Amino acid sequence: MSFDLVLFGGTGDLAWRKLMPALFQAFRHGSLPEGGRIIGVARDDLSDDAYRELIQSRFEAVEGAKRPTAEEFKEFASLLHYLRMDLSKPEDYARLADLLKSRGAGTIVMYLATAPALFTQVVQQVAAAGLNGAQTRVVLEKPLGHDLASNRQINQAVREVLAEHQIFRIDHYLGKPSVQNLFAMRFGNALFEPIWRREHISNIQITIAEDLGVEKRGAFYDKTGALRDMVQNHALQLVCAIGMEPPINEHADAIRDEKLKVLRSLKPWTSETIPLHAIRGQYGAGTAYGKRVGGYRDEPGIDPESRTETFVALRTEIANWRWAGVPLYIRTGKRLASRDARIEVNFRPTPHAIFRSPPNAVNKLVINLQPKDGLELHMLAQAQNDRQRNGSSSRRLGPQLAPVQLDLDFDKRFGIERVGAYERLLLDVIDGRLNLFVRSDEQEEAWRWVEPLIDSWSADGEPRSYAAGTWGPSASSAMIARDNNSWSEEQ
Fold this sequence. Notes:
This protein is α/β, with parallel strands linked by helices.
């Protein structure tokens, strides 16, 4: 199947950090369909060869095992082309149309790795140039809009020129192997589904922690913040994967219908619950990697008086028959103590204890998302020593339990060459598979749920400060402690 992949923003950060390495891995694995062409589009004045040299230089930053050899890149580079475009000029879209129509590829993918503010303009110009035919698929990066109104505006503009099955709203967390295995664990096995409910689960925690600051994304991040950048999309998609009912089949709409029900079941925010159950913070100076680092407001591109949140912790519930009364905790932030993304499902204790157990011992399932990728099942087992010594004598205390852990490391089990998130999603776009992409009504419901927080925090004062290299403001621990629970590192 021949394809043309047009990468708007082809010299940008996302293109060389994520998309090009993913496309190369698909090429290396032999998964990229033959007869393909990758066309970078940007305002820089580059030739095809100059663009290839730019991408090759960027590959130097790719981790060793995934870095192409000189021979591999030479083969991959034959797919790379470049077109200089000003996205505001119709005549440049006409040149793009001539380039694409001259070859007549079976599939045309338009990947908009640009600012969301440009999405409407680009898709309208693409349609005006006659490039919105049945063979065209458009990929929209997150965040899609800045609030519910702007999200609706973008979606409406896109739907005016494209059918819903041509629109691929990407959330790369849905392409992560560990998230795929969450679906497989729930719906491919009979083991967990009977206990995947309020009668057996006491609480669920989602952590998406980054140890880095905003790096070179300061100008973008200061207008976005952690709520829009991570919660509205990534975290809520994880909530859907955890909370959804089994779909009737693996068809895209069957899956997305069930995810939508979860979003509509989330408890709405009120003026009473926001102060108690929604914590926002902003990192100050602290220590990272053993070195002193500055605070958020010291970062390049950040307003010195910025009130943008770099940390969010939330408590909510899925108010339906399966999950009613089960607290769901979400936290995400930058400059935290470590890079760690995981889902923890904490099970209820046995109804009647007949063994002695260590304090705070729990049964829990941990789905590791990054940097480790796998599943951990934490249980209790018979300890080796059930005697207590008292001077020269000892006495038997009876059965003593100790925590044990079953650990499935997917990298070890399936190999490090497994398909990465962006690689999987790009191949799905080329194949026309929508299962791992977000439908417009899902997005709108997610925006609707977070909008009261956006409005409240816009009118509120300063975010709570926390030192870089910690786990966020103390109010986050206080929030979860009100339910007699704690974050995992505090247990």
